[in-house]
Structures are given as structure tokens and as C-alpha cells.
């Protein structure tokens, strides 16, 4: 059984722009000057920046920083947290994972799309924020961006 519980009351995701890592890798072209934050795009990187899903893991699954550090995807974080090398018996994290019919946790479509939106350098900063808001709104989650870049 998973140690994670669904937090049904959570319907808002807050992303702190001053701690947000988004946009392509430092070696990628950045035609819209939309790269924000420092370091690699991870749930939490070694410079203290998080991708949008890092914020979601902290807010929806009560993830601790040591579990998120340098993890590229929520499903890997879940494996680490539950001490297993398989996806079985991890359980579901609201919005980020689904449990298949055979009981295996998989990334949700929201997670897959959020990774693409967060990590792409093909959007302006405002365009990325709008698309992330729209994506989460389809799942009845309001996204609020706070602070400045």
C-alpha cells in the first residue's frame, strides 16, 4: 500500500516564478528568451529550482526536498519514496499518476503534457504559463504563478 494519500481538498497549484526552472536546456536554442531558473530541469535541482511538476509533487503528495532532488520525473520520485525498483504498489498521486488495471502506477497524461510544456523553449514565458494553466484547469486545478522571475 502506498504511503501517499490523495488530498481531495487540493485544487490549487502555486508555482513560485523565483524558484521555477522552465525552458530548454542551457545548450538549446531559446528563440523566445523563455528559459527561467538555473541548472537542469528536474523536480528539484541542486540549485534549488523546481519544474512545474516539482511544485505539484510538494503540494499534492507532500514530497520532501530530499526525495525530489535531481529526479527528472514524478514516477521515479515515487519509486524512490516507496523503496521499490518497480512501479507496482506505488499507488496513485493526485493528478500525476494513474493506476492501471493490473495495479501498476503510470504517468498521467497531465504529467506527460506538463513535462513537454515546462521543458520546451518554443513558448514565450507568458505563453508557457497560459498553457500550463489551461492544462491543469482541464483537471479542475487552478494554477497561480507568484513572485517575479
Describe the structure.
This protein has one domain (12-21, 33-146). Helices cover 32% and strands 11% of the residues. The chain has five helices and four strands, in the order βαααββααβ. Helix 4 packs antiparallel against helix 5 (125-137). Residues 1-8 and 85-90 have low confidence and may be disordered.
Task: Give a short overview.
The chain is α+β, with helices and mostly antiparallel strands.
Q: What features would you highlight for this structure?
A:
single chain; 149 residues; alpha+beta; two-stranded parallel ribbon; two-stranded antiparallel ribbon; 4 strands; disordered N terminus
Adjacency order of strands in the biggest sheet = 1-4
Helix content: 25-40%
User: What form results from the Cα inertia axes?
Assistant: globular
Percent of residues in β-strands: 5-15%
Give average pLDDT, whole number.
82
Domains (count): 1
- What is the β-strand count? 4
How many distinct helices? 5
Main structural class:
alpha+beta
Order of helices and strands: EHHHEEHHE
List segments where confidence is low: pLDDT < 50 over at least 5 consecutive residues: 1-8, 85-90
Tell me the radius of gyration.
Answer: 15 Å
**Distance N terminus to C terminus?**
39 Å
Q: Profile the largest sheet.
A: 2 strands, parallel
Amino acid at each position: 500500500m502506498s504511503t501517499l494519500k490523495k488530498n481531495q481538498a487540493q485544487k490549487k497549484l502555486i508555482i513560485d516564478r523565483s524558484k521555477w526552472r522552465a525552458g530548454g536546456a542551457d545548450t538549446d536554442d531559446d528563440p523566445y528568451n523563455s528559459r527561467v531558473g538555473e541548472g537542469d530541469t528536474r523536480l528539484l535541482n541542486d540549485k534549488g529550482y523546481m519544474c512545474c511538476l516539482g511544485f505539484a509533487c510538494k503540494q499534492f503528495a507532500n514530497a520532501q526536498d530530499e526525495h525530489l532532488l535531481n529526479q527528472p520525473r514524478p514516477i521515479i520520485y515515487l519509486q524512490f519514496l516507496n523503496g521499490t525498483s518497480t512501479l507496482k504498489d506505488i499507488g496513485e498521486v493526485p493528478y500525476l499518476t494513474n493506476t492501471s488495471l493490473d495495479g501498476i502506477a503510470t504517468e498521467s497524461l497531465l504529467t506527460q503534457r506538463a513535462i513537454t510544456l515546462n521543458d520546451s523553449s518554443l513558448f514565450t514565458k507568458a505563453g508557457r504559463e497560459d498553457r500550463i494553466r489551461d492544462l491543469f484547469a482541464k483537471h479542475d486545478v487552478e494554477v497561480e504563478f507568484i513572485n517575479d522571475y
